[in-house]
Write a structure and sequence with these properties.
alpha+beta; Nuclear Transport Factor 2, Chain: A; five-stranded antiparallel β-sheet; 28% strand; elongated
């Protein structure tokens, strides 16, 4: 916009005879060079922006460091394989913050015994909040296989919040 206004002012001034024909030729060349430089800058900016977006997209899968990934895999393995809910809770207690332990009644014995085996299929990290993860897996108990999604918030290599979702399939 500023370039257009500047260009129009130069045309207006040259039309009024303020510049000699030699100055007009110089001014016209300078204006054309300026327009060319602006176009090059615009193209460079767009190219840089595309490169930055691509590098961000390429970094996303690598954002989750191996320590956190290993931490979450160990947690999921202990969460999904147990014979007693209280023993399971005590096994995963070390992975949680005090707040998470309290919020989820990890220290309370529900007196539930059932052999459960499970496995983790995938761990994903939230793009907008890198402390949020989803753990997709399955649990098998009492001849029933249920898919489970654990939504966890990791703060300083501890789970600060957890939500457990059991998934039902219609077909």
């Amino acid at each position: 916009m500023l370039l257009v206004v500047s260009y129009l002012c130069l045309i207006g001034l040259s039309g009024c005879g303020w510049f000699s024909s030699e100055e007009q030729a110089t001014q016209k060349t300078t204006t054309e060079e300026t327009i060319g430089a602006v176009e090059e800058t615009k193209e460079t900016f767009q190219s840089t922006e595309r490169s930055a977006q691509n590098s961000v997209l390429e970094e996303l899968p690598e954002q989750m460091d191996e320590t956190t990934k290993s931490f979450l895999k160990d947690f999921a393995r202990k969460w999904s394989n147990f014979t007693d809910v209280y023993k399971r809770n005590q096994a995963v207690r070390e992975y949680m913050t005090d707040r998470c332990i309290k919020d989820n009644s990890i220290d309370v014995d529900p007196h539930v015994e059932m052999k459960t085996t499970g496995k983790l299929h995938q761990v994903t990290q939230d793009v907008d909040d890198p402390t949020q993860y989803l753990l997709f897996g399955e649990e098998h108990a009492n001849d029933v296989t249920r898919f489970v999604v654990l939504q966890v918030k990791v703060v300083e290599q501890k789970i600060d919040a957890i939500k457990v979702y059991y998934v039902r399939s219609a077909y």
